[in-house]
Amino acid sequence: MDILFARNLGEAGLNCLLLPVFNDKKAFEYVPELARNLPWLQNSPALADFRAKKDETALLYGPPEALKDAPLPRLLLVGLGKRDDFKPQVLRDAVAAGMKACLALKLEKPGLSLEVLPALAGAGKTAPDQAQLAEEAVLGALLALHYREICQTPQAGDEARVEPASLTLVGPASATGKDRAAVAKAQAVAHGMKLTRDLVNGPANQVTPAYLETRAQELARAYGFSCTALGPDYLRDEGFGAFCAVARGSRTEPRLIILEHRPQNPPKNLKPIVVVGKGVTFDSGGLCIKPAANMDNMKTDMAGAGTVIGLFAAFGEAMRTDETLKDRHLVGIMPCAENMPGGNATRPGDVVITLAGKTVEIINTDAEGRLLLCDALTLAQQRWDSAALIDLATLTGACVVALGEKTAGLFNNNDELRDRLMALGEKCGERFWPMPIYDEDLIKGKTADLANAGGRSGGAVFAAAFLKQFINEKTAWAHLDIAGPARLDEKTAICPGGATAVCLRTLFELVKQGL
Hints:
The protein folds into 2 domains: 2-147 and 166-175, Leucine Aminopeptidase, subunit E, domain 1 (3-Layer(aba) Sandwich); 188-513, 3-Layer(aba) Sandwich (Aminopeptidase). Helices cover 36% and strands 18% of the residues. The protein has helices at residues 9-12, 32-37, 45-49, 64-67, 88-105, 117-121, 130-144, 177-201, 209-223, 232-237, 241-247, 303-319, 369-383, 397-403, 415-428, 459-468, 504-513; strands spanning 2-6, 16-21, 57-60, 75-79, 110-113, 166-170, 226-230, 255-261, 273-277, 279-283, 330-339, 351-353, 359-361, 388-393, 407-412, 431-434, 450-451, 477-481, 487-488, 498-499. The strands form 4 sheets. Strands 7, 8, 9, 10, 11, 14, 15, 16 and 18 form a 9-stranded mixed sheet that branches. Helix 15 links the parallel strand 15 (407-412) and strand 16. Helix 7 (130-144) packs parallel to helix 8 (177-201), helix 8 (177-201) packs antiparallel against helix 12 (303-319) and helix 13 runs parallel beside helix 16 (459-468). The protein is elongated.
């Protein structure tokens, strides 16, 4: 969908205009053009029934004789709820609800009034600026129309999906450079989030480690990144013992994929932000096999790697309009493998040697994500002196038990990095909760330096403590356990269920702002 700009309704040529409204119904005074050209609006019966609750919509038509020369045939009100409760994500979700209504009505040329943004900027407790509101509105529109690809054969009589071809932002403010930059940023982030969702939702027989390598190589060619993919022979010969232990039971070959954007003339003191994403393209649990119920959802266990690919897609798109991003140094590392119970699979009780030289006793083959990550984190520190090293993974069900399905666990060894991630997450509408790591939480093996799992209690904390053993003291590190929010069963305003692409916005903001 294209994002267009128009200074007024006559120039826009719309068949519908979205107008965000608080429950006090004060909106028309913000857009004088509506009252001037469509005086019938405030007497519309639909307006009397509209309560402007969050995500509520109301379609307003005028009498036929009044519409003959009018610049707008219909107005779609989208509810924002109470003015005091407003935050930017409320506008995002309201616009998303409006775009879904346009989709249902097969309206191909909707618009959104930007003249209401100055009034919204002063509402609520967060005091967002106008550019941030424009970004949220466009992001909501783009994500609302993204849908899950379903591998079903079209049937006779199925209606064709008619999406809006464009969204026109209407008002004098749409001509400002700051608003246009915010819109371009929203388009880039939405592009990355949709790619992540498609990858994570994809069936595991298609989205393999080799497939993720192909998509990473495509990004490299499109945006000028470097891309390296390390295969099973290299991983075995170079000592990635923990990584290889996960992949042994599958006939599908593993890959360790590295994407990097390096500035052409970087200053000597520039350090990269390094993001490591867990990429288990299907997790059966290995020999410690998972219960059959809901095992189909284990295709989403590569959400960390999918998010890294989406982050680079968003970054590459954003570089087209934001020259400052070309001076950022960004590295993405994706350890990708299947965890299967084949004849060569790793057994409980086996001992493996990690890339760092530490030995690990495999207590539970379903605690495989930390084995991929520990070798990838070691590689990251061997090759790059990073400004921040962040890993994200659908790592433990215990984190879901502790924090629910909408909050990611945040473990760290650096308070400044923790605070930045928390603040940026709040701005982007992504929730993180700081979690502890204690020395006594480390699980030592009976026949090795470490054990990869313990008992039922404190699983998320034990996993983080395990990873911390592979982090150098001087490395600013954060571990994001996204097992809960990486996928949702319920539909939301901006997600049709399934993969969410959580953390991508927060990480993009961190890269954009720098450290």
